[in-house]
Queue: 4 jobs
Job 1
Amino acid sequence: MALAEAEAIGGNKPPFFVLSHEALVEIAAAAVEQRPVAPFLPRHFSERRQEGLGRAVKAGLARSPLEHPGYLQNRSHRQTEAERRRFAELEQRRNARATELEIDPTLIASRATLLALAANWERAGAELMAWQRQLLGRQ
């Protein structure tokens, strides 16, 4: 599990609240090129998180290329009518909660997440954080 994900789970927050995706890419590029990563860290990044990031970078650099993650391949899935209805219900619920909270709906769940939930809530729902399940209406 990535550092940002572990920190996010511990704080019950989305991973990009810990480190932005852009910062993670910059940190990875700097680490590979043996440049300092400190310029890419947020001002509020605690010493504990900096140490954890240092351990994660070191562990990542120690992995052989054969252990590197591969590219995700998109598998096409034709929705059933029931999945279309579930998707519409989930999207409506997500959008209503986002309006109440005055946030972008995709902060709660992306379109891809809603599609996965509509297809199989048990499998896809297991990957949601508790606050997402609560906002989408399923515990």
Job 2
Amino acid sequence: MAKVLIIGAGGVGTVVAHKVMKVPQVFSDILLASRTKSKCDTIAEAVGSRKIKTAQVDADDVRQLVELFESFKPEIVINVALPYQDLTIMEACLETGVSYLDTAIMNHPISPNSNTNGNGHTTIGSKRQGSQRFLGCGFDPGVTGVFTAHASKHHFDEIHYLDIVDCNAGDHGKPFATNFNPEINIREVTQKWEILGK
């Protein structure tokens, strides 16, 4: 069984904490950390388990992250913080030899359409060997890639393009509400993104 550290106490962090709790045969110890510890405490209480411990950490500060990793000693860090923090969290994982998983594509805070995901992750990923890194494992491109591969193999002769509508099915009674950090969603729908390889 593995020790897991979840960084981020928003909506996605809440879902991840609930899901991780459902596989006790995989995860023996769970630590939920965020800039605001009280948010982590609220999630732990909602999950209803004393198994989830909580901590405060600034995900922009590599030193703080390294200290937290060294004290808790997780086998994997699941990063569901802001995409701006991917590289600092990954840097701390590489420094401590901890495996890393993120759900969002790294997004530069000043130049969001600069497409730094590939360049940033490749550069930092080449600095050290040993830990595993799983990038962009969220809904898109993560799960949608799996669904698309299945559909391509079993249901279609050809697929020329795929449109992903990033909404929440409207089951909240509002005409529109974001699934993720609202700023990130607004950037996604307003920016012209450079496509790799063009």
Job 3
Amino acid sequence: MDGRSVRLHIATDITDLKRAEEMSRQHQEKLQMTARLITVGEMASTLAHEINQPLAAIANYNMGCVRRLRSGQWDAGELLQAMEKSGEQAERAGRIIQRVREFVASASPLSPPAASTKS
């Protein structure tokens, strides 16, 4: 040894590795977006089904009342009962929507934290 310092520098081309990592990240993002869209679609389908049932009942009760009134042969008690049932179904649809609103509000990452109730 003659006392001189020697340095060894090694350079490795990581371009392909960085490109592969970026592609993997993009694929993961697309996969997550697809999963979210599928979930939203399933939720929308379930919600539509849940709301459609009371709406169909309301329509049926109301059409029954209309037919009876048009026929001229109606009983006030039967009409009242049908209209009460129609009202109950409207309230049912409202409760479904309220539960969805509460769920969305509680699940929202942007919603403010609940206020403390300490005295």
Job 4
Amino acid sequence: MKHLVLSLFAVTGLSAAQRKQTFTGTITDDMCAKADHSKMQMGPTDAECTIACVDIHGAAYVLYDGKDVYTLSDQQTPKKFAAKRVTVIGTLDNKTKTIQVDSITAAK
């Protein structure tokens, strides 16, 4: 019985750590992770630089919230939000700093 109770606490702890969260920040790429595209200048705008870094240089789309950088599990949807402020809803893996994305929408 004691093991069952401990197992239930462990499962409860895992599910609590894996809850959905809301993140707001700018869609950028991991080569210009802090949304500073002045060094790369892969296009005349930050959006074009972000897309070029992903398409040409194999970078990944990330969310920069002004402090932290999060890799996004969805690498298709962010393209239309390149260099824009968005709200991402998803589950954060703290070890890898990756958000398992449920949705990405323009920030209000």
